[in-house]
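Job type: complex structure
Entries:
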Amino acid sequence: NAGVTQTPKFRILKIGQSMTLQCAQDMNHNYMYWYRQDPGMGLKLIYYSVGAGITDKGEVPNGYNVSRSTTEDFPLRLELAAPSQTSVYFCASLLDRGNPLNTEAFFGQGTRLTVV
Amino acid sequence: GDSVTQMEGPVTLSEEAFLTINCTYTATGYPSLFWYVQYPGEGLQLLLKATKADDKGSNKGFEATYRKETTSFHLEKGSVQVSDSAVYFCALITDNYGQNFVFGPGTRLSVLP
């Protein structure tokens, strides 16, 4: 059981370039999330999805886009990279918030992105 | 909206010292509460959780009790080790539709030998 898999682990982008951060989970979780973690700071929610075909903005969505065509995959797209997007990005998935006994978020290892 | 407040770090302790990291929350629904730990260079891992008032979550010598009357979920460990050095995040989730996992800012713990 692989859990939550993020790729790539590291990436350096030039200003204005675009890229997609990949996230896949094999646990059949319905909820998935993208967070960013800036140095010395906590997690800020970028986008989330409650199921295939449904996405919503989080706290800091500007400059990002997401899609959820399947239950397993939740890619995060940066269209025009800016230095302010230098951060560590974490993807997470969660099974069923309705049952607290089954509620636990599983995190990927993170993608460290630098925009220069 | 829902929120989580944690004591500011960094916290520096000597090995075998007692640890407390304070966490308080504000929630509109009835939340489940969590502590996550992030070791250097890794993602977050669940440390412990509690799903109802007066529940005590425990794992690896860490404990936290869900106190509804004080809206708190303080993390404690009787004797810390160097290997406990990490960032600790308090978090909550409610059953309100559209609500998500809400994390505190994290508290960095450094344990010195």
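Summary: The radius of gyration of chain A is 14 Å. Residues 21 and 76 of chain A are 5 Å apart (CA to CA).
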